[in-house]
Write a structure and sequence with these properties.
Layout (H helix, E strand, L loop, with lengths): L1 H13 L2 E5 L14 E2 L30 E4 L1 E5 L10 E5 L9 E4 L5 E3 L4 E9 L5 E8 L9 E9 L5 E8 L4 E11 L4 E10 L12 H9 L4 E4 L29 E2 L15 E2 L5 H11 L2 E6 L23 H15 L5 H8 L10 E4 L5 H18 L4 E5 L14 H10 L4 E8 L1 H6 L13 E9 L9 H16 L4 E4 L5 E3 L10 E3 L4 E3 L1 H10 L5 E3 L1 E2 L14 E8 L4 E8 L5 E8 L5 E9 L18 E9 L4 E7 L3 E8 L1
Parallel strand pairs: 1-30, 2-14, 14-17, 17-18, 18-19, 19-20, 20-21, 21-22, 23-24
Antiparallel strand pairs: 1-27, 3-6, 4-5, 5-13, 6-12, 7-12, 8-11, 8-13, 9-10, 9-12, 15-16, 24-25, 26-28, 28-29, 29-34, 30-33, 31-32, 31-34, 32-33
Helix pairs in contact: 4-5, 4-6, 9-10
Length: about 650
């Protein structure tokens, strides 16, 4: 009976027999292969990754008190100490002693605090009479206790000149929807500017730092590349609202406000209080890249507003003979990142706390643009960058879709031809597609021209057909498609899914990799797929075939996708297999170049509910699971026999 059962298992596995040649090292897998893309959408910066808890901290919103409730005698002024953020308020004593003067900030969907955690309150202030005081509180307006405030500190204002005052509040309770309230104390007026509240426990302990749990989630991805700051915000709705990196550096108190184009893009997800404080600016982006071990990839404007919103409007874009300031922005950024500390822009970097260069290697010019509008403008950028910085690699774009559209509105192939003609180093491709597209495009990169630019899959996600959320099925199909990235590592050098972050109360676009509220977060199944790949990338591709064909859901492959790599650092063979069929699949892996039996490590993503997802309440509902499997002695090679659950993704690590 045992022999009969073994024979049956062998026959079943023969249906999905894969050959892995462990002796033949293929293309190197770039360290930048798996990365992250940050765009300030879904409250990803202010209200998300950036640690600031106060909304409209410098009263610079077009409606100056948006986010604030003011009471008593509060006067708004615009001649403050910071020229690019001139607004501030004066709190004066009211006419009657039983009245109060002050203001309350609502934060981003509430100010989230945790029991026992400390928060640094800071304010720039002055007292016209030389002294004054304020009461700083964290409050719960819905409290059933005797007092709304659950913590209060007094700050004495001791000068008639502007000075920064700081105190630390340690919360005795947890509350996702607290508010910050400031009362005038006494009769002397005080002026307040740049009112700020930060967790003291930011990532790496930086004062103007990142929310620790969200930044740690990025570090845990082990990203090789970090693309920022967008995305469509690079273009802006118009050129006045484009992201301008020079406005995002220097003292944080003097960084001007910028309108976020995602504030008004979707009227069905409309957030009129969505602006960019630039507190999370280019210095912080470079610093975060360094902290998490990723190569920075900044994307800069090519002299074009959002092309989709300004359809064929030449007047919306910078004339081609007036591009010099935009070209200078690119050249100056490279100097800011890489120049010596005594250069014009390198000096600013050094003054901000980083004398050593960031060693930036890549720059992108333009986001999701296409057609002669883009190609003509890109040329002088390429020429100028090549002339001054020949070692910097330039990333161009092929437009917003991964193929030509039937009406020729978007011409993907023309984009690639133009990038080849201009000798771009990489071409940024974007594709948000449904399940069927991901199932049928596993061989997408196998037929690409190996001469010319490399591929940067800069934005992609399986949206789901009518299911635009982070459900399990979409993540498995992303895992399947990604085997094509690895198999074609000679042409695919960078990949970053998108978007990255989303606030559960303030999203405009989904699916997204990481979701959060004011105090908690969860990593989606798609996040775990990315992490599985990034932490099991290997150094070189290995040939893996089924009936001498790549395994990418081809005819007779029963919904299987697979790739293999070798890791020269650990001396391990790494095999990735996705089973996209709705039934269990028996597989047989013949490992030529290896002999003998051994135990392999496995990492498996499997779940029964196709529409299920993780959540704030169940952050680890679906996660990969570690395991082991026996590798047997085969006929002149090692042999691995396994049964893959339906709709699953499994990674094997086998010491050679």
């Amino acid at each position: 009976m045992t022999l009969i059962m073994l024979c049956m298992v062998s026959l079943m596995n023969a249906q999905n027999m894969m050959e892995v040649n462990t002796r033949k090292l293929g293309a190197p897998i770039q360290s930048t292969m798996y990365g992250i893309f940050f765009e300030d959408i879904n409250y990803a910066a202010d209200g998300g990754l950036y640690g600031e808890l106060v909304k409209n901290r410098s009263f610079e919103f077009p409606q100056s008190f948006m986010g604030w409730q003011v009471f008593g005698c509060v006067e708004l002024k615009d001649d403050g100490p910071f020229c690019r953020c001139p607004h501030y308020v004066i709190l004066s004593s009211p006419d009657h002693s039983d009245r109060r003067t002050g203001l309350t900030n609502e934060g981003f969907f509430g100010i989230g605090v945790k029991k026992g955690a400390s928060y640094r309150f800071s304010v720039w202030a002055k007292a016209p009479k030389g002294k004054g005081a304020i009461r700083v509180q964290l409050i719960n307006e819905q409290s059933m206790d005797e007092k709304q405030e659950f913590i209060e500190e007094i700050i004495d204002i001791t000068s008639s000149d502007w000075k920064k005052y700081t105190t630390v509040l340690t919360s005795p309770v947890s509350n996702k929807h607290a508010k910050l309230r400031i009362f005038l104390k006494g009769d002397n007026s005080v002026a307040l500017e740049h009112i700020s509240l930060f967790p003291t426990d930011t990532y790496k302990g930086r004062e103007n730092g990142m929310r620790r749990d969200l930044a740690q989630a990025l570090a845990d991805l082990h990203p090789g590349i970090f693309r920022f700051p967008g995305g469509c915000i690079v273009e802006g709705t118009d050129l006045n609202t484009r992201y301008q990196w020079k406005n995002s550096i220097g003292p944080v108190e003097n960084r001007p406000l910028n309108q976020n184009r995602w504030e008004h893009t979707f009227d069905y997800r409309y957030y009129p209080d969505y602006y960019q404080s630039y507190g999370l600016g280019f210095f912080e982006f470079f610093q975060l890249s360094e902290d998490i071990g990723a190569e920075p990839l900044p994307i800069l404007n090519v002299g074009m507003a959002c092309q989709y919103q300004n359809w064929n409007k030449e007047s919306a874009h910078v004339p081609q003979d007036q591009l010099k300031p935009y070209i200078n922005d690119c050249l100056d950024l490279i100097e800011f990142a890489n120049g010596p500390a005594d250069s014009k822009w390198g000096k600013i970097r050094a003054e901000m706390g980083h004398p050593a260069p960031f060693n930036m290697k890549y720059i992108g010019v333009g986001n999701e643009q296409w057609g002669e509008f883009y190609y003509g403008r890109l040329k002088p950028f390429v020429a100028a960058i090549r002339a001054r910085y020949p070692n910097i690699k330039i990333v161009g774009t092929s437009g917003p879709v991964p193929e030509d559209t039937p009406d020729n509105t978007y011409r993907f192939e023309d984009g690639w031809k133009a990038m080849k003609a201009q000798k771009a180093d990489l071409v940024d491709e974007h594709f948000y597609r449904n399940e069927q597209w991901f199932l049928t495009h596993g061989l997408r990169y196998d037929s690409y021209d190996r001469k010319g630019p490399k591929v940067f899959a800069g934005e992609y996600a399986c949206h789901g057909d009518g299911k635009k959320w982070n459900h399990y099925e979409a993540a498995i199909l992303e895992a399947a498609f990604m085997t094509g990235f690895e198999r074609n590592a000679d042409i695919v050098h960078m990949t970053t899914p998108a978007p990255l972050f989303a606030h559960v109360d303030g999203w405009q676009w989904r699916p997204d990799q990481i979701w959060y509220d004011q105090t908690d977060m969860f990593r989606t199944v798609s996040y775990y797929v990315q992490q599985m790949y990034a932490t099991n990338a290997g150094t070189h591709v290995l040939p893996l075939t089924m009936k001498k064909k790549p395994v990418a859901n081809q005819e007779g492959q029963n919904g299987l996708f697979a790739s293999a790599a070798f890791d020269q650092v650990t001396d391990e063979v790494i095999i990735k297999i996705a089973n996209t069929s709705k039934r269990q699949q028996a597989v047989s892996l013949n490992l030529t170049g290896m002999k003998g039996s051994r135990t392999a490590k496995t990492l498996t993503l499997f779940h029964n509910g196709m529409d299920d997802e993780n959540s704030i309440c169940k952050p680890e509902f679906i996660t990969p699971k570690n395991g082991t499997i026996q590798v047997d002695e085969g006929k002149g090679s090692s042999l691995l026999l396994d049964d893959l659950p339906p709709m699953s993704f499994r990674i094997y690590r086998i010491h050679k």
